[in-house]
Design goal:
The protein has about 180 residues and is mainly beta. It has helices spanning about 15-20, 85-90, and strands at about 1-10, 30-35, 35-45, 55-60, 65-70, 75-80, 95-100, 105-110, 115, 120-125, 130, 145-155, 160-170. The longest helix is centred in the first third of the chain and has 9 residues, at about 15-20.
């Protein structure tokens, strides 16, 4: 097991949430959703809040922010991280809850496979058929698949949360 994983639950006004997002400098991903659509792409810290869907996850190797916009306009946040110095860098005043964190990352396979269409790599799910919007990935080859990597946050060995840490091309080590 990794030492610890931390979770902070907080509420932020739009201005403070926007400031928090601008402080994200490392490459990140966003998986945003509302009833009628889902967006999954590379995150840009200059994205204005008006373009965010009602709820989602912004994540990278250092932390994950789950957000949901309330009817009041404020944002309910769950923030996951393993390095307790993130408390200061994300300007968190709340006391974090601590969890056991899995030692290794697990995979969630995404639908679709890489196909080249008009010279551009895209992810296609042939069973639907539909083009899928996924984050831009370099070095794709035919039939590559993507996975979301995640850690498990546990209490007494019972999983409580999955914390997304990144998106990678799946490499089958048996081939």
């Amino acid at each position: 097991m990794r030492a610890k994983g931390y979770v902070v639950r907080t509420c932020r006004c739009p201005t403070k949430f926007a400031d928090m997002l601008k402080s994200i400098t490392q490459p990140s991903f966003i998986l945003a959703e509302q009833v009628d659509k889902i967006k999954f792409k590379n995150f840009n810290n200059q994205t204005c809040l008006a373009k965010l869907l009602r709820k989602g996850r912004i994540f990278n190797a250092e932390f994950e922010i789950r957000y949901e916009r309330e009817d009041s306009g404020d944002y309910e946040l769950l923030i996951f991280f393993e390095d307790d110095t993130k408390i200061q860098s994300l300007n968190l005043n709340e006391t974090p809850y601590d969890y056991e964190c899995s030692e290794c990352a697990y995979d969630i396979f995404l639908w679709g496979e890489a196909r080249q269409i008009n010279g551009e790599w895209k992810f296609i799910e042939v069973r639907i058929p539909k083009e899928l919007e996924y984050p831009k990935m370099g070095g794709l080859q035919k039939k590559n698949e993507l996975v979301i990597k995640f850690y498990e946050y546990k209490t007494n060995e019972i999983p409580q949360f999955n914390r997304f840490i990144g998106v990678e091309k799946y490499v089958d080590e048996n081939v």
